Structures are given as C-alpha cells and as structure tokens.
User: Fold these one by one.
Assistant:
Number 1:
Amino acid sequence: MEQPVKKQRILSGIQPSGTPTLGNYLGAIRNWKLLEDQYDCLYMVADLHTITVRQEPSLLRARSLQTMALLLAVGLDPEKSILFLQSHVPQHSQMSWLLSCYTYMGEMSRMTQFKDKSRRHAENVNCGLFTYPILMAGDILLYQANLVPVGNDQTQHVEICRDIAARFNSVYGNVFTLPEGYNPKVGARVMSLQEPTRKMSKSDAEDSFISMLDTPDAIRRKFRRAVTDSEARIAFDPANKPGVSNLLSILSALTDESLDSLVERFGGKGYGDLKSAVAEATVETLAPFQQEFNRLMADKAYLQSVCRTGAERAGRLAERTLSKCMKKIGFLAP
Ligand code: TYM
C-alpha cells in the first residue's frame, strides 16, 4: 500500500495586543487559511509576547479570546489545524530559556523591531523586549515548523530563528528543522492610513488602522481621512506616493485585481473614488467574518473547548522537542 506523504508543518502566531487589523488579515491570517489544507498547521494567539509592553489584565484576557474567535471566524478549522493560546503551553517559556543561552546579545541588539519599540516605549525597555525574538524562535522550533507565514515585519525574526537553530544543530546534531519565512505577494506590508511610511499596527492611534471588527461607517470614515498627497494623480509609486500606493495595494490584495489594472481603471479619477472603492471592498470582505465572530463570542464554552483541545495537542508536540533538547544539552531526565 502506498504510504501517505507526510505534510510539511506550519507554525504562525498573532499577538492579542489589540483587535487584529486589516494588515494582520492581508499579511498573515488570510494565508493561514489558504495553506490549511496543504500543510499540517499550528496557529497560536501569542499572548506571552504581549507583556513586553504593559497590558491591562482584563483587556488582555478579553483580547485573547477575541483573537481566537476571529481566527475561527475567518474560517480556520480547529479539526484541521491546531489553534491554541501560547501561555497554555508552558514549553514555550521553557524553550525560550534554553535558546537564550545559544543567542548572542549582539544578534538581539540588531533587531529593527527592538530598536523601534525601545524608542517608542523608552520608559519600559525591559529584558523581554530585548529577548522577544528568542521566545518567537522557540515557538517555531518547538513544532519543527518548515514554513512560517508572516508579514514582512516578521521576516528578520524568522531569519534569526534559523540562525539560532543552525547554531544549536551544529553543537548537538540535527535537533531542529530550519524554517522558511513565507510572505504574501500583495499585502505583506499594509501601511498606516495616517502615516503611510509606517506599517499599520493594532497598537497605534485609532484612525491609522482598520480593525477587523470596525463597523462599515468607521471603515468608510477612516479611508476617507486616509493621508494621500496633493498631486491628485493615481499611480503606484510607494517611495513618492506612499498613501495612494497603500490604498492601491490594499484594493489589489482584497480584490485580486493587479496593480497595473487598478491604475489603468482609476486613471483620470479622483482620490475620493479610490478611497470609496477600497472602503467598499473592505466592508464586503469583513462583513461575513464579523457576523461569524458575533455568533462565536456568544458561545464562550465552545471557544474555551477549542483552546483546551488545541493546547493539549500542541503541548504533546512541544514536549517531544523540548525533552529531546534537554537530553541533548545534558539535563538528567526527571
Ligand atoms: P503581530 O501580532 O504583530 O502580527 C501578526 C501577523 O500579522 C502580520 N502583520 C502585518 N502584515 C502586513 N501588514 C501589516 N501592517 C502587518 N502588521 C502585522 C505580522 O507580520 C504577523 O505575521 N511576533 C509576532 C507573533 C508571533 C509569531 C510567532 C509569528 C509570535 N510567535 C511565531 C510567527 C511565528 C507578532 O508580533 O505578530
């Protein structure tokens, strides 16, 4: 009898540090769904990662469940993929300590996200902010993931994960699979609507991002107010026309129409036309997710059971890798 081919594995995650944005959807979550059948997938609400910045406890709890509900609402199937909360699988914290002893200070201080966040949160440059990529490397390596679908801003973290894994392997033999990052062709870097030279982020000012739970009115208002330029010429030119180029990219990602075709179609039209087209495409994409989200949030018992089952399944896989690592390093088995 022919053996079924073993599927390759995916691990990815999202922080519950706010309501997921259109950037999170186009850069990551949409791909998670597209890859679900081809790969053996684990998708995680990365709650441990959020505390590098102070979190209000009740908000963190609410957002963690909300983020899980949104992942289900976009169609991720807990029967196919393992969906879980990072803090429910203690092996993540344990692995992080082990790997931190195989990572150099110099490597961490070169991370652009660390440099950026330590500037923005100058009052709280904690050690967790510095070692964050090590926790993330552990997330990926615990599951021997082959592929990590992420937006562009996480590429550097996936690369450092490979470096740490290769270093560990060079000492102890083939313990870790070396993962590859995977970015979407369009939507890998959705920019802020207010400062289109920066990425759209769920922890920025309200008007700068579209949340996946925004009402149609809020979506229209935010796009109407989106910063463009004074040229009144629709062209894709991210360096000189970041605002307009961002709107075109979002529309292209949402409708699958190429940038060239959009530029041609909107040639001669005003920015207002482009803005309302992007707004309508966004409303249309998000509406079914929001409906399903509301249904799921009314069924907390179901959400909790998904989290519980996911954590059990993830924990079994994680433990296998963690104990292998500990044995290699020389820890006595309990
Ligand atoms: P987070 O929560 O910032 O974002 C989740 C995913 O969304 C992508 N993303 C974007 N894509 C396009 N445009 C944007 N404006 C945009 N903003 C965010 C991110 O690239 C990411 O793929 N450290 C991670 C979470 C994490 C993780 C992991 C990811 C923890 N452990 C292991 C992969 C593997 C983070 O903060 O993502």
Number 2:
Amino acid sequence: MFNVKQQLTEIKNAAQNVLNDITSKQQLESFRIEFLGKKGKLTQVLRGMGSLTPEQRPVIGQLANDIREFIETQVNVISSKLEAEQTQQQMLKEKIDITMPGKKQRLGKKHPLTTVLDELTAIFTGMGFTIAEGPEVELDYYNFEALNLPPGHPARDTQDTFYIDEKVLLRTQTSPVQIRVMEKQKPPIKIIAPGRVYRSDAVDATHSPLFHQIEGLVVDKGITMGNLKGTLEIFCKKLYGDNTQTRFRPHHFPFTEPSCEVDILCPSCNGKGCRVCKNEGWIEILGAGMVHPRVLQRCGIDPEVYSGFAFGIGLERITMRRYGIDDLRLFFENDLRFLKQF
Ligand code: PHE
C-alpha cells in the first residue's frame, strides 16, 4: 500500500516537473502518452492494484483518479496556452503595415499595329467578311505561280523574296491566301486574311523585311467593279471619317484585271500638297482589282459563272498615317517610350 501510494506521488511530482518545461504541442503529446497512455506510467501503477486489499483499493483508486484528473487538467491548460501563443505568433508574422507604399502594377497595352488591325477587322467583319489564314512559309506555287506570276515573270523581281529552296519561300504578300481559300471553299466567298509578309529589303524609315498586309477577297455571281468601289469607299470612310474623298487610280497586278490603287485625299492639306502627302495631294491606301479569270479557273471556279474582287492593304502604312508616325522601324524596336504613347 505504502509502496503504491509513494509510486503515485512520485508520478505526480515527475509529471509536474516535466510539465513546467513543455514548450510545444509535440512535447505535450509525448508527455500525455508517457503518463496517461495505455502503456503510460499511471496505467502501469494501477495494474498493480490487484495485489491490494479490498480496504486499500478505494483509497488508492481515489488517489489515482485525483492524480489522473490533475494531469489531464494540466495538459488542457498547457494546450490552450500553447495554442494562444501560436495564434499570437501567426498574427505577428502576418501583420500588415498599411502605411507602407504600394507596389505599382504596370498595365500593358496593345501595340499600335494591333489596335489598327483590330479596327480594320471590325470594319470588315461588320460588312460580313470572315477571317481566313494561310502559312507564312509558303510554296512558290501559291505565292506566285497560281497568281499569274510564272517563273521568270518580271513582276517577281519587284518582290525581293526570301527563298528557302526553289519551291518554298517566305510569302511576300497575303495574296496566296486567296488561292488557298478558293481551292477549299466554293463561292460565295467573302474573307479577309491579315498576316505577316516578308521581303528582302534593307531596313530604313519606310522599309522592313517583315511587315503586315490584310488581304480581302469576294467571289460570287455577278460581282462587279461597282462592288469593289462601294466596299472600299465605305472602308476608307469608316477608317478616316465620313468626309474622306477617295480616288481609284488604274494600276497593274498580274492576278487582277482590271486593277487599281486606291488613294484618299490628303487630310492634312486637302489636296494642295504638303509634307504628309509628299506634295501629291493624295495618299495611297491599298491595291485592288477584279480577280483575273485565269486565277479563278485554276482554283476550279468557273469565270463564266462567277466573278470577284480582291484587295491588299499595308497595315504599317495605315497605322503610320493614323498616328503620325514617320519611321517604320519604331514598330519593331519594342521601345516602351514609343509604345506607351498609344
Ligand atoms: N498583293 C498585292 C501587293 O502586295 C496587293 C493586292 C492584293 C493587289 C490584292 C490586288 C489585289 O502589292
């Protein structure tokens, strides 16, 4: 009896000693297992109760329960204390200094070429055009031959071409998309095809080996030069304002007949001649024409039944005019001081 009682008192004292040094939840848990667990110190002592007399048992039982309760209470108290400390530390760590200056988020914006392309696309889709695409690495056949420019045709020389091999090149114009669309799709056709084109030009204020065009193609029964003029006049007015005057000037392209270039009256001088229009009074906007019957035929479209018109717009030129940019190189240098202005 004395022995068990002493053991219990020792356990209580030991528990108290250890408890004072506990600083973490893990320590507390090992402590709990060590003293109260199934194989814990207290349980082991209680197992020895069998050897006690019936009179001793309730006394020792009571003492053991008191000690268990004492230890359990201590564990709970320390557990809440540790939890409170942890929360406190967490709060300190996450403290926000609301007086600190914020970090500025820099917002990007569209490249001026993208802005103007979006605008042109909106104008044409508003007129019922859909968007087509073609490859930038193109076959000679689509870029030249199917467009009435057979090998050796002098007009090939005007488009300084990057050849990859004899049959493959970087497209010099978006016109090959006309052929690809007509091969796949039967009339009515009404598409625009914006994209990059390449010519082996030395870089200067008005030339770049990479630039952008927007091709247009309409093919259906009964399409005439009147449709071409009406469509392109509306386009110019939507882009440059309702008072814009247009001029359709005869020109030559091998894949259209007849062909023309479209000018607008110089908005800076109203035709008198100035720096903006290089004293011409007019500013060239695009090339266009009625799709050549042989081009239609090659794509399996009967030129006796169908006719069409096509046009090609230079995106850089239109964008330069729109914002008064005088050097093409600025588009491709990615200088933020330039790009931020639009
Ligand atoms: N592809 C021609 C060029 O690059 C432009 C054009 C397109 C002309 C369609 C007529 C019809 O100069």
